[in-house]
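Marked as duplicate of an earlier ticket. Keeping the data here for the record.
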Amino acid sequence: MRSFLTQRFKRALTLATATAVLGAVGLPAAQAAFPEKAIRIVVPFSPGGGTDLVARTLGNEMSKELGVPVVVENKPGASTVIGTDTVAKSTPDGYTLVLSTIAHAVNPSMMAKLPYDTDKDFAPVMLVARSPNVLVVKPESPYKTVQDILAVARANPGKLTFASQGNGTSAHLAGELFKHMGQVDLVHVPYRGAGPALTDLLGGQVDMMFGTAAAVGGFVESGKLRAIAVTTAERSPAHPDLPTVAEAGLPGYVADSWYGIYAPAGTPPEVIAKLNAAAKKAAESAIFRERVQSEGLIVSAGTPEAYDQYVRAEIERWARIVKAAHITN
C-alpha cells in the first residue's frame, strides 16, 4: 500500500514539475499588456524647431491615451542620420520611435552610404501631418507673383537667388523643384539654419526663400516679408488667402514638408496598431491642432500602410530631383 502511494506521489510530482517547466520555457506565456513603461520619441533635430514642437505636443496627447509617459529625446546631427540610426538599432518592442521628416526620404539619394537600410530597418506607424513651405520675398521686392519670378528668371538665367537652411532641406528641395518644373536657373544659397537665411533675405542679400510656415509666419504677419504662394497641393490653413505654387503658375507642383512616426523593423503588429490608434487620436485632438497651427499643418493620421506608400513615393520623386540638380550632402 505504501509502495502504491509512493508511486502515485512521484507521478504527481513529476507531472507538476513538467507542467511548470513547459509553462516557463515551452508553452507561450501570457505577455504583459503594451505599454508598461515610458515610450521614447527620438527627434533627429535640435530642441526648439518645428519637429520638436510636433513631437512634444503629439507625445503629450499620446500619453493620455496610452497611460504611460511619452518623452522626447533630441538627437541631432548628420542630416537626421544620427537620431534615425539610434531607432533603427533599438529593440523592436514599441518603446523607441522616431519622428521622421522629408529628410528620411531624401537621404538615401543624397548620401552614398547610410548606417541603416531605409527600406528594411523601419516599421511605419503613421503619417502625422503635412505642412507647406511658403515662398516669401521682401515687401519692396518687384516680384509679387510666381509668374513675375518665372518671367525674370527666364529672361535672366542665374540672376535670381533663393536661400535655404542647408543642402537637402525642405526649403532647398522646394526651390530645386521650382527650378526643374519652371525650367529656370535660380542660384541656391545654403545657410546653417533658417535664422541666418532669413537674416540675409531681410537684408536683401538673397531674393527669395521657400521657408517653413513656422519660420516665416511671424515675419509675414508683421509685414517684414511678403508671402507669394504655398508649396502644398492645397491651400494652407495658416495662409488660406495664398494660392498654391501650382495655382499660381506651375501646375502639378507639390513640395510638402511632413512628419511621420517609425518604429524599428520587427515591432509586433499589435504594438504598431496600438501606437497608430494613440497617435491618430493625439493628432486629431483640439490641443494638437491648436498648438501646431503656426506650422500650417494639415493633419493626415492614416494607417501604417498609407504612410509606407506615401514615403516610398516621396523617395522615388525626390531621387529624380536630387539627381537632376546634382545635390550632395
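See parent ticket for discussion. The domain at 133-248 is CATH 3.40.190.10 (D-Maltodextrin-Binding Protein; domain 2).
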